[in-house]
Amino acid sequence: MASPLGVQLYTVRDALAADRDGVLARIAGIGYTTVEPFNPTDDPEGFRRVADDLGLTVSGAHAIQLLHGETGPVFEAVATLGTDLAILPAGIPEEDFTTPDGLARAADLLNGLAEQAAGHGLRLGYHNHWWEVEPVVDGRHAIEGLVELLAPEVVLELDTYWAAVGGADVPALLGRLGERVVALHVKDGPAVRDEPHVAVGSGVMPVPEVLAAAPGAQRIVELDSCATDLFDALADSRDYLVGLGAA
C-alpha cells in the first residue's frame, strides 16, 4: 500500500513564518496529506487546529529543541501536534561520527532521549545529514555503526539525498538498515553539497530504487534550497511520485 506523501515544512520556512495557515492550505491544495513541522513548540495547539481543518496529519516533528533546555515541554508539544514521533534532526557534533568512542557518545544521547520520549508515549527518531554517512568507521558508514549501539526503540528517518552526498549507495544502505528506517526524506538534485535542490525526479537520485528499498517507510519531500518556485517544485515532486505509484 502506498504511503501518504508528506512535506517537511523547512522547505517553505520563509513563507511559513509569514503566513502559516496560508502555507498549510497551499500544501493541502497541491495534494499532500501529511506534514512534518520543524518547530513543534511554536503554537502546537493552533497548528493542530489548522492542520485538522485542512485534512492534514502530522507524520512526525523535527525537534532540535530537545537539546536546548527541558525536554518535557518539547515532547508534550510533539504529542499535541498529533504524532508519536519526535525526531532529532541534527545537533550531535560531527566529529562524533568519526570514531568508535564518538559513536558511543551519540548512541548514549539518543538512547537517553528515547527513554524520555517513551515516558510521554512517544518514539524518538534520528535524521541524518552527510556527516553521519561520509566517515568510514570500522569499515562501514558511521551511521551503520551507530545503529548497532542504539536501543531498539530508536528509529531512523533516512535523508536519502544527504546519504548519497555522503557517498552511500542509498538503496543498498537502506537494505542494510532494514526496519530501523521508518521514514525517508525524498529529495533530488546534483548530489553535491551547497547546490540547490530540484523537484524530485529531475535530479540524479535513483528515486524508484530508493523507494523500493524501503517500501514501508513514510515518504516526505523536502527541498533545503531551490532555484525555482518552491511550491511549483513541491507540486512537480508530488506528480512524479504519484506517477511512480508512491502515493
Automatic annotation (TrEMBL):
Assigned keywords, A-Z: Isomerase
Annotated Xylose isomerase-like TIM barrel domain residues: 25-213
Listed transmembrane segments: none
GO terms, molecular function: isomerase activity
Keyword presence, Isomerase: yes
UniProt KW Isomerase keyword: yes
Pfam families per the UniProt record, alphabetical: AP_endonuc_2
Family annotation (PANTHER family): HYDROXYPYRUVATE ISOMERASE, INOSOSE DEHYDRATASE
Listed name of the protein: Sugar phosphate isomerase/epimerase
Lineage per the UniProt record: Bacteria, Bacillati, Actinomycetota, Actinomycetes, Kitasatosporales
